[in-house]
């Protein structure tokens, strides 16, 4: 029975993989935790080393002639701007100098930097002042409040006086016109005709209108003069100047919280940008896809902090499972196998010795050390461990002795020397170490050297990674060199053994880990 499948075009890769980004940021938690801690310490240091200067506060109730319930705060904002003028600052300084609370050389422009006004409500103004001491701050706040109240009252009185004078001037003009009308009425003779009677009636009507307008102007002028005392009495200091007490623990806690949040945000942003720019795969499926080989085992990172006994047992059990898996893989291969590391030379050395010890029970095993450094020599070897020879002495090892090569595919690797370590390889890769471009380079170079990749051992994977590290679209993407060797082993004229067709299975990421 032949099963036919319709090949579907691969889905386009997303421009930004959020899952990979989240994992990459979580793996760089040292960065953003350090930034958050640095922000916290800087906030505390700022509160301790740069305490706020002595300050005082006072509140002034400001009455406006144009007060309306629908006012949006325009009048109080105007008062805030008036408070920040050199006229108010100069009056306050003159008052302070008269009481010896100000330096003789201090300018109003400099004094403006030491205080600010804030509109609390439509009629309430708060004045905050800083100085060299609490007493000086209180004195400056009192002088500023008095200067502002005096200036506001003066402006209200001048405005009322100007309005009253304008109304009285209008009244005087109306009186002059009324005098002319009265004179015109007195000059009329009583023996006039009908036309003269109509003219006299119009003059009487005009006189009545002028009398009414004169009375109106008198009333409005009186109201203008009457309203000024109300505004003057309504503008006053309602909260006496007092020194503001600063709590060092509260300030330090506030600054620490702000620094912690800012540092955390900056750290997360740097980690995210670094993860996107670096392009280092961290998920199993990404590493498998970039290397063209399936992940066959994982090795958790050794914790740096003390662990509980059951955690040590879990780590030991995981290492034993990894050793058994690799030993079974090497044992089932008819050709020498090598372990090639990328970013985990020490872990690879330990894995190689454990696998060699497991294989030593079945016969002699020689470990060929092709690592650039002394990692294998410092991997805690025992006297009864298998023999370790350098890469230069690999040719002297008898062919009947099982060989296990250990090398590296880090940048700077001599690719042509890898075939002497083994004709097949298992890649031991630390998650998040190599870039996607370098993983592609490793897969291409191994294929060019005709070294098939049996599988990938992932070191330090993300513990929450639930992606599948198995390639489901066939072995041709992973073992290009293997297929080239099959082509060499089947010369022209000899029938090539048929392989059963395997349908392409595409499944979404599941919550079950692939081992």
Automatic annotation (TrEMBL):
Residues 462-515 are annotated as: Disordered. It comes from the Bacteria. Keywords: Cell membrane, Coiled coil, Membrane, Transmembrane, Transmembrane helix. It holds the Pfam family Wzz. It is a multi-pass membrane protein. Its main location: membrane. Residues 16-95 form the Polysaccharide chain length determinant N-terminal domain. InterPro entries: Bact_polysacc_biosynth/exp, LPS_length_determ_N. It is found in: Cell membrane. The chain crosses the membrane at residues 31-50, 256-278. Residues 157-184 form a coiled coil. Belongs to the CpsC/CapA family. This is Wzz/FepE/Etk N-terminal domain-containing protein.
